Structures are given as C-alpha cells and as structure tokens.
Amino acid sequence: MKGLFGRLPTLLLLLAFSATPAYAAWSRAETDRFIIYADGGEEVVREYARKLHAFDAMLRTLHLKDAERRPGHKLEVFLVGSGERLRRVNPHADPDLRGFYSTGPARLFAIATTGEGATADEVLFHEYAHHFLLENFSAAYPAWFVEGWAEYFMTAEIGRGQVKVGGYNESRVNALLNAEWEPLEEVLRRPVAEIPPDRRYLFYAQAWLLVHYMQGAPERAAQLERIVVALAAGAEPVQAFREIGGLDTPQLVAAMRAYRKPRRLVVQVSTAAPAAVVTSLSEAEGEFHLDRLRLACQPPNGLDGAWLEDLRRRAAAHSGERLAALALAEAEFALGDAQVGEAVIARRLAAQPDDAEVLRVGGLGQLAAGLRAPEERTARFRAARAYFERAMSLGGPDYRALLGYAQSRTVEPDFPDHRDLDLLLQARALAPSVATVSLAAGMALIRRGEWEQAALVLAPLANAPHGGEAAVQARALLAGRSLDQGEAKASASRPAG
To answer: Positive or negative CA dihedral for 69, 75, 78, 84?
Structure first.
C-alpha cells in the first residue's frame, strides 16, 4: 500500500448540477459501490455516478493495496434540490445546513442539497472523507486530524482525467485571519465535543491549516504520516510533533502563520462512466424515501404525531406500493401502533416471503417496539430474531441483519455466546463506520473478558469527532465504567457531520 498520509491526494466529487425543481420525479442509479438518488432527471444520477466512481478509483489506487476491493456495504447518496427537503429528513437542522452523513442500525447514507452553491458540495465532500477514512483505515485518530483531513480534501476539484487537491475554503481562511486562534495545544489534545460551540469554527480552521501545512512539502507529509500513526497508538500529541516533526508548539504556530504557498496536488484518474442500473421513481416514492431516512436517523423525540398522521394518510393513498408499506411499518414500530407495523410486514411477506429488506424492517421494528415497552421486550426481541434469521439466510451478509440478530439476543442469559460475538465482528467488518456496530461489538467483547480486542474496537469510536452518545459511551467503557448506560442506549443513532 502506498503511504496513506505521505501523499494523500484525495476527495473530489463535484456536485456541479443545476438546481432541480422543488417537487420533481426522482431517479436512482446503482453501481457496484454506490446507490445514488436525486430528485431530478437521469442525467443527474448518471453524471454523479461517473464522478463519484472516478473519485473512488483514485482513492483506492493511492491508498489501498487491492484497488478492486469492494465495500462491505454500499453507501447511499441522496441529492435533493432544496433545504426544505433536507429538513424533511432532519427537521431540527440549522437553516444553513446543506447536508450531513448518518450511520445507524437501519441506514448508512449521505444527503446534500444541490444547486445552492459550493458550500453544499464541500459539506458532502467533508462527510465522504469521514466515511472513506472510517471504512478503510479505522483507527483511533485524533479529532484535529480527522477534521483537518476532511477539510483539506473537501475543496477538491474534478476535471477531465484529473483531480486537483489542496484548494482553500474562504470561510476557513477568513476565520484564521480575523479571529484570535485557539491555543494549539488545545486543538491537538481536545475532542470536538470539548470545544465551546462558538469556537468550533476556529478548531476546524486551525485543523485544516495544520494538515495543509504538513501536506505542503514531501518531507512534512512523511512526518505527518509518522505522527498520526504514533498518535493512533497513544502518543502524546505535543510531544509527537516535537519528536517527529522537530517543532515545539510555538514554532509550529509560527510556521502555520507564515504558510503562504500552499502546494496543490494533481492526480490523474480515469473518468469513464461506470456500469449503472438507472431507474425512475415517482414523486411519491421519493417522498417515502425521505420519510424512511428521517426514521433511520432521528431519535424518538425527533418524530411527532402530526408527521405520523401525515405519513399514514399518504401511505393509505399508495397502499399497494412497497416503499409506502415499508415507511408506514417503520413509523408504526417507532412511535405508533406496533401491531399495525406487524400487520403491514405480514402482508408484504405473504406476497413476497423472500424479501430480505422487509424481513430486516420487521426485525428492527420488533427491537424498536421492545425498547418502547420494557414489559414486552423479551417477547419482541425473540420475535425479531426470527426475522433476522430468515434475512441472514438470503443472499450475502448484511451488517443490519447481523447486528439486529445479535441485539435480539441481549435478552438471553447466555449473551454473548461465540456466535453472537462472531456476528458482531462480521457486522463491524462490513460497516466499520457505523457507531452502533462498534459499540455493540466492544461491549460484547468486554462481557467475554476480551479487553484488549475491545479496546481496538472501541478506540476509533471513542475518538470520533461526531460519534455523539456512542463515542461518550465508548470512552466510558475504555475507562472501565459500567456497561449499563451503554446497553440502554446502544440502539440510538444520530446524524453525524
């Protein structure tokens, strides 16, 4: 494998698409690596698939020993034409939000608005950088590196047969020029969650500049690779920069402030269109996709009765459609009537018994209903197990079925047995970016007394800048605290980014 951090020209993906109508029909493109949806014409998803594959080929050629390696789970990418549709998925989002990345027991996806300027593109580039790093090089990287790395590549430009890396973000430059910097020792040592919210923009800006400076010359890039490897192994950050980079903190700050000639890297890459199956979706189908994303990434308090009633009305108007049934079942299990959810799943399975997605929805729904009603938990978790067993017997491995089966076993006195642990570790290998998977695997390893392996599984999550509750729980577990809180919240997922 070529040096991961010494010569890291990455992250392209240019969402240079014109604005799409507010309520257009949808298109879907599935390739061997991605599933892409857009509320626009087929040319949008075809062009995006081409650029995304060119980007992915470049990343894998530079950083993976096997350039043909396939992802364990295809990333879903949703391109929406307005902030209104983005807030259909995340109703509590900041009005200026242009996209986010979400991992959870049900879905692994990125969503961004198109036609609203370069900021939205950069947000998606940033989040895809996190996804690529987590999926391919999962380790306990420090927050400044994870964020600085993503910031460095989010301005990548894709051209004809090449990608340019190393541009700059105007807002980050303005922050560095017009605000008092955070002490660099704090940037190097603290996770994002410990930075005051009104100062995080400076953390991002300084992290970006530090990575850019270290990438700005081959000898510094080689030092950065060694520093990050040392930090992932537990080295103290200030000492690592002094011993490997040869600079103490005041010298490093001075060098960063004097950095005025950023080096831009150009990578030659094929831009041929990938093989893709492109289909058209109706407006209603697209809207049900947004409903399902909302259910996948929102905590229970992010869902409300008015939204549920609206979904029920729309699902009734499309009662024969598969997506309407799946959205309705998920919503009923999450906050409505679980018996209605069961009935919807039963009807779908009567029509198509080998529909693995319907089986997964039924299993995850039983888990959700069991968490809502503790007195029913054991019965519902056992009912969920039957769905996951059937889903696992169909087709290739899927992290959602493997994780769901293991979670359904948590009500049994012999959990985790060898099979439970094996399924959880398989799930993590398929989707290392999903916090719930790592947390569940880490807790199972601890329960079996395998602390050394548990630390390897939990450390990347504990350091994740946007790990949320799961990262807090991972840090508590590594510190030797009780498992109780982690188990109570292990099924929670949040948007990240």
So the answer is: negative
Q: Where are the domains of the chain?
A: 10-167+276-288, 168-263, 299-396, 427-497
Give the pLDDT confidence score for residue 159 in this predicted structure. Answer: 84
Instruction: Tell me the average pLDDT across 67-89.
Output: 85
Give CA 95 to chain center in angstroms: 21
Which tens digits make up the pLDDT trace of 232-252? 888 899 999 999 999 999 999
Q: Are 34 and 52 in contact (CB under 8 A)?
A: yes
What's the CATH architecture for 10-167+276-288?
3-Layer(aba) Sandwich (3.40)
Peptide bond into 183 cis (omega under 30): no
* Mean pLDDT, residues 376-388 taken together: 97
Report the C-alpha gap between 25 and 287 in whole angstroms: 10
pLDDT band per the 50, 70, 90 thresholds, residue 89: very high
The pLDDT tens digits for 399-432 are: 999 999 999 999 999 999 999 999 999 999 999 9
Residue from 67, 52, 40 nearest 15 by CA:
52
Which residues make Cβ contacts (< 8 Å) with residue 8, sequence separation at least 6? 62, 63, 149, 152, 153, 165, 215, 221
User: Which amino acid makes up residue 371?
Assistant: L
For 179, the token pair is 């605000």
Cα–Cα distance measured from residue 140 to residue 456, given in angstroms and rounded to the nearest whole number: 8
Cβ contacts of residue 78 below 8 Å, gap of 6+?
A: 37, 38, 89, 109, 110, 111, 112, 289, 290, 293
